[in-house]
UniProtKB/TrEMBL annotation:
Name of the protein in its database record: Phosphoesterase
Listed InterPro entries: DedA-like, LssY-like-C_dom, PAP2/HPO, PAP2/HPO_sf, VTT_dom
Highest taxon, organism lineage: Bacteria
Domain Phosphatidic acid phosphatase type 2/haloperoxidase: residue ranges: 360-433
Species of origin: Trinickia violacea
Amino acid sequence: MEHAYAQFLHLLAEHAGWALAVVFLAAFLEAVAVVGTFVPGSTILFVAGALVGTGALNLGWLFVCAIAGAVCGDGISYWIGHRYRDTIACRWPFSTHPSILEGGRQYFAKHGALSVVTARFFAPLRAIVPVVAGMLGMTPARFYTMNVVSALLWALAHILPGVVFGASIELAGAVSFRLVTVMAMLIVALWVSVRVVRVVLDHARNWANASRAALMQWARRQEGKIGHVVLRMFDPAHPVMGSLFALSVLVVLAAAIFFSVFAGVVSGAPLVQVDLSAYRYLQSIRSPWADAFFSVLATLGTVPTLATLVATTTLLMAYERRWRTIAYWLTAVVFSQMLIIVIQLSVLRVAPGHAGSDIYTFPSNHVAATVTIYGFLAFLLTRRVGRFQGVAVTVVSTGIIVAVAFAGLYLGRFALSDALGGAAFAVVWVAIAGVFAVWKHPDPPPSRPHLPAVVLAMIGLSVAWQASSSVSSNAASETPPSVPIAVTEAKWADSVWKTFPCYRSDMVGDRREPITVQWASDPSQLAAQLESRGWTEGTRLTTRSLLSLVSPDVSAMSLPVLPKLNNGIPSTLVFTRSHDMRDERDVLRFWPTGYAVEGHDGNPPAPIWLGSLVHERLLRPSWPFNILRPDKRMEPLITERGQPAGWRALEVSRDTGCNGVPVNLLSSDVRQPPAAANKK
């Protein structure tokens, strides 16, 4: 099987036509009725786009194959609907699941020919709407016009992000790895937020429908006033009651999240350690281009932008004479900010890395104000537009809130728990304001389909106006990098080494492998000394090394060495050493300490690095995914491989080691002063 798999990979590398055929088939099957529900065509297109970014596929031919497959698949579905229009409802699976066909009918009746374009982006409707279009007699010319347009937009939306991702991976290195990391974190945060909102809303809707049906059955059996009130509250003829119920549940959930985070911050739970680790990690991947990008992104939540939105919404509500809605919203904004100030003064929590500051950050009033204003604005807009526009407004608002929160985390303005607490606190007030607004104005407001575009344009103008000044102010406010604390070699060997941790800690503070090496050296000298002892620089994250993760015949040394975190700081220097067994390797990772050993003869101080040495073994049973697992076997750091190098070790004895683990103090200085030599 491994041999066949290797041959398959070789064919894909040598013949790109196979990959294009797979793309055509995936796009075709995803658009075919019933079958398309189980085909991950969107994922395959993204992966193919990544191969374009690495130079393995041609972008033009990829677009042709994807569009052709999508058009042919929709055409088959349209023909099935047209050919069996009178009997398709009686055929499987529509006979056993009539709701599938009925959902397509309702969507087509509401959006008409445009549904052929928009339905392709929704998995449940993608393969059903063309069938309905054929059943209801849509002309072939009109259908195929919309079909080609939808296929083009669908291909662009899935292939181009993959191209960008593949190009970023191809450029992986010291700087581009930061690019990939920041992009991946932002994309994952947005994707997770949208998915969580969608899953929660779907489950809440299903649960609400089932609960409403059960309550109405119970209420019909009651003869008193309680039964009459329950029937009126949950009657489908009064959908506003369902909105009130959903908003009330949202208040309870958001309040539970806020008090959970609040308890964790006050008690010093592992969440606080996660705050510190996340701060250190984000600070370690900062770069000038990312600072400028997130400074601009942060303007989405600045006072001028939020004030513009408040003024716009206030004018809109005044035009509609909804004075109480204005009062609810402004009360939610002002009163929530006042309560946040009270909580901040009681908790007295400052952001990580800003000890001694008089600016308290839990819960974050910046995130709270952003959630309150964008959240209530989204609530008002979704009541004034159609379903499709309402979904777009919700997604865009969620994305803006996540972007503002992540920008603040990246720039170190508040911690993760500050953002979570501020967001949950604001959701409570938004939901309460929404309850009062719906209660006092249950009738649907006038439709304003162009209002979201106007609001988006005003946000864009506000961001453009503040962009340059935001970048300049952020650059001016940046603190200069801290200078390492210089100590003498004797002081390091006598006491300073004991102040460093004995074990590597993960994001939540749990102890991992022991830190057995402390090395005072310039990075280039450290690398040279290790190379003379048989060590090499760890394999970097590139397209080739990523593909080796699924290769059936690969050595442990060919697999990428992933940087591990120590209290949120990724390993800066990584080295590997091979073994006689090609499935094994040693990995040596180093982290900075903020200390340095004073140099001799006018040489600059040598930074002190903390290093952990692990032995990794390749697990073949995990194929087709090659996974390296560390084991308890500990190889000696210094062996007889290679030629002796000009360096010496100050070894701390096992009895006085770090929690029973011996620590090697190493230096690349060749002088060996008598006061510090061979300390035991």
